[in-house]
């Protein structure tokens, strides 16, 4: 793909182009980014070509050449305005490590007119690619080439009138072809999807299919429904700005059917690909709503995994931030600040504890708790040095640091990151007897999430957490509860463990503690536990900084009267009632507490990622986990009506199966 950095309409070489119509380059880039992100979200690799000044149509990368399973053919353009693109793409192929890049003597405009269907090539002619070039393509690729004549100048490239769905199936608009070519297509593809003039006229056929998912324009709803009926899964995208140059999804996408020998899969993107985000580019937010770069609004039903519990840009939090920014932001812990002790005192009181160890991220809080537990075990319990053991639960998610992934059973988090930190013993979540069997004199702590969020918002049976408390008391071990996602109002209590009237020895907090503004985390415990730390044994430059302390203390103050907790409980009951009504109608199970729900979608309706893509198209943002499970964790500022609005859209996308969602 080639970013539309220099995209403009300064000349007219097809009926779509009108130089007098202004082009919004920023909007074109945002739409292009969305398309690229869709490919990445589907698991495809995306490589980019550097755009060149003076070549505004270079964004239509499909015209740059043809890459079959064993051959690369560079393009040769018909019009002089695009002529320089041919050498630019040829140089890119060579730079990527492709050898023996082929060239034709007469014009060929790459995948604009050369579409691979299984072991043959459909080759268009009539407006751009010369008919005699087809024989050259057959010679260069060693594949059968079938000539198709285009007769309507609106469909000047083959990829505007015909789309390849898989190795045996195509969709096409018959009226774009000569009678002889119509007869040839009918004979070759009797089961093709035939497309009418209305959907063809918006470049509906200019799509990209991986054999299941069809990425296409959002302006061809009838075609999307036809593709869904044929067993494909349409994913729609707005490319209206790029349509001003006569191109769509396929025009922007050159498919590489064999990888370059030397491939930079960084996509020239400076952001490491450790996430696979939905194709939504956020620009602003307020309350429970996010607005993207195109001005479309989305109801945020994830709240940054509970980090935005109190809503985006909460005015109380922002006021505290603004005030502190005007005075002092960072001193490090080498000096005192006037914000640290009040924050720690208030947080300890909120949690019913005596001391707070402030850190930054949730993973830091968990790592800190593990260190404290080991030191406590050696100094207070008398475990031999180096022998401390910590019991953890299967299906856990406590972060992605080396020590934490050492006891993860998620292959994506763990594979490829060894050797691992020893000293952890994993047992099934929810099984008190397994913890009892794992107990011995070396066990210093049991670490558990009161509710497992990443695992799908799994709520334990009523006896689980009280049973852990009794076992830890009996064996002189610490009970550590990770409340980073579940704490600070999310489940209807300040802490999730309060649902079972349990008090852990250590509590890890994060996410919501930062008010949706900055990372703030903490370990909260009594002096008998946190008191084992001495100066120099643990620390963080930013941990407990004045700005973080100001935000954290504000969050604690907001929770002090219980109103946020009551709101989460009341609205959570409504959320679960509405979600429960979907069971048997595209949903198989619903779990959770308060404004937190795990929703198991019938796999026949699609994967969790596919459902989330459809929800995003409907204006709802949620997150999948583990196959067909979705997580809903909206900000606590969400309203009763907004919950209904979101659930109604979920009902729509799961009930109609793997179809298109229209915005």
TrEMBL record:
InterPro entries for this protein: Aminotrans_3, Aminotrans_3_PPA_site, Class-III_PLP-dep_AT, Orn_aminotrans, PyrdxlP-dep_Trfase, PyrdxlP-dep_Trfase_major, PyrdxlP-dep_Trfase_small
Alphabetical list of Pfam families matching this protein: Aminotran_3 (PF00202)
EC identifiers of the protein: 2.6.1.13
GO biological process: L-proline biosynthetic process
Membrane-traversing stretches: none
Protein's UniProt keywords contain NAD: no
GO-annotated molecular function: identical protein binding; ornithine aminotransferase activity; pyridoxal phosphate binding
Signal peptide as annotated in the record: none
Gene3D superfamilies: Aspartate Aminotransferase, domain 1, L-arginine/glycine Amidinotransferase, Chain A, Type I PLP-dependent aspartate aminotransferase-like (Major domain)
Name of the molecule in the record: ornithine aminotransferase
Organism whose genome encodes this protein: Williamsia sterculiae
Taxonomic lineage: Bacteria, Bacillati, Actinomycetota, Actinomycetes, Mycobacteriales
